[in-house]
Amino acid sequence: MTEHRVTSPLGPLERLKALQGADLPVHGGRTLAYVYDSGEPTVDRIAREAVAAYAASNALDPTAFPSLLQMENELVGFACDLLDAPASAVGTVTSGGTESILLAVQGARDARPDVVRPTMVLPSTAHAAFHKAAHYFGVGAVLVPVGPDFRADPAAMAAAIDDSTVLVVASAPSYAHGVVDPVTEVAAAAAARGVRCHVDACIGGWVLPYAARLGREVPPWTFAVEGVTSISVDTHKYAYAPKGTSLLLHREASLRRPQFFASAAWPGYTMLNATTQSTRSGGPIAGTWAVVEHVGDDGYLALAGRAFEAVDAIVAEIDASPALRLVVPPDSTLVTLATDDSLDPFTLTDELLARGWYVQPQLSHADDGPSIHLSVSAGTLAHVDELATALAESVAAAVAAGPVSVDPGVVAFIEALDPAALGDDDFDGLLAASGLVGASADGELELPTRMAEVNAMLDVASPAMREALLVAFLDRLQRPSRGER
To answer: Which residues carry this modification: N6-(pyridoxal phosphate)lysine (predicted)?
Structure first.
């Protein structure tokens, strides 16, 4: 017998609003990861209206929707001017930084069909999207340790390049620490071996040029650096455009051409794609174009000024707290802090969330302990005094609560498991032990309200075990909602 769904008495838009009440706020400058808030209501209104106007349009065929082609070309032109690109430069709008990175790796691989087992040379701080690209495209990731300042080591990067290398990567800035790699030296090493050099400026590309114009010290990283062949820059970050758009720029068209895919090997239309997607909603492209048109160069300079003013204020608060320290002085709008032995970083993130501030915990990696990551937006400046108060209160509360300990039995259980050979029963045991799954009466998954104990457990697990555990967690989260709602 077919089970009929019992529909909600609320209309779809009313229900949508009710569902959204459980989400982190995307405005108000208090969510310091995942979203980027200009603090300008007009920017959000223009973006929404443009997205709605083009939600049904499809950028798959630029001859069918020439307005989208024009908007895309104008966005690329703006970015080319911003990033010191030569007249020969070209670019593509993608769905986000990960897709831009995937395409940079795929294009570098396909440009070198003579290399049987291609590799790419990455600083150990390169974004995880490069590891995803390695997994998808069979390009081996050669990881090079960074220096004590968390920046790429140019000599070690140069030494890692060999005949299999199709791409060398630098970050501007790296996500985890917010510092710009020595792109001049890294790009020179790549050029000396005839290898492409991609600069991942997904998070900094739309703000670092303005930082330089504001008189802040920014290491060279744009196309003005010889040897840089491509740059990724996300417009849905510090261009304050709607999710999800990014740009992938190439120094010249010949470098981009391997990125394109065409197929006439079937009876339908000849497929021609500039990105990994075929259908591309016109909504994000139009929303991004409208925001960039509205804000303009002078507007972005002002927004960058507000973001950096907020960064400076947050850095001063960290410096003033004996229990906190900067992991490294930030080059951009990303601030990474650590705690002393009196203060548990995971409890601190919980306490901040309880006071309305979301910050992102980062687990231990190699020889470096856990840290806390903040992506600071222009919209944060108006509330930076509130953040200072919340930070002081949260530090005091976390110190009073004491450190979070992981049960030795749980640690032993985790260490005894092989993450490559886990079954469903093992996953269920891990999820229960971690606190990621509650034991509700009806067997439904229950998310914890505080994450300190969960993060502490993940912190003692190996990277492979973390991956296995969180994959299992995601699998349990994404299950069909059937019947009554």
So the answer is: 237
Token output for 231: 């740059």
Question: Which CA distances in Å does 404 have to 12, 196, 238, 451?
Answer: 42, 46, 35, 11
* Structural domains of the chain, with CATH: 48-292 (3.40.640.10), 298-401 (3.90.1150.10), 408-477 (no CATH)
Helix/strand/coil for 53 = helix
Q: How far is CA 434 from CA 118, 349, 428, in A?
A: 38, 18, 10
pLDDT tens string 290-344: 999 999 999 999 999 999 999 999 999 999 999 999 999 999 999 999 999 999 9
Distance CA 153, CA 314 (A): 28
Q: H helices within 241-281, ranges in order?
A: 253-256
* 193: nearest Cα among 134, 115, 297: 115
d(CA 308, CA 312): 6
Q: How far is CA 11 from CA 19, 55, 224, in A?
A: 12, 21, 54
Q: What are phi and psi of 324, to 5 degrees?
A: -120, 155
Selection from 337, 356, 333, 359 nearest residue 234 by Cα: 333
Which residues does 471 contact at the CB level (< 8 Å), separation at least 6?
A: none
Q: Give the other-Cβ count within 10 Å of 214's Cβ.
A: 14
How confident is the model over 153-171, as a mean pLDDT?
A: 98
Q: Which residues pair with 14 in a beta bridge?
A: none
Tens digit of each residue's pLDDT (9 = 90 or more) over 469-484: 888 888 878 888 776 5
- Angstrom distances, CA of residue 284 to CA of 44, 64, 102, 259, 397: 13, 17, 19, 21, 42
Collapse the DSSP code of 217 into the 3-class scheme (helix H, G, I; strand E, B; otherwise coil) and give the result. coil
- Distance (Å, rounded) from C-alpha 71 to C-alpha 77? 10
Strands in 253-357 per DSSP E: 261-263, 271-273, 324-326, 334-339
CA dihedral for 85, 175, 148, 311, sign (positive or negative): positive
Cα(120)–Cα(140) distance, integer angstroms: 6
CA–CA separation, 460 and 126 (whole Å): 22
Written as six digits, the tokens of 146 are 């960074």
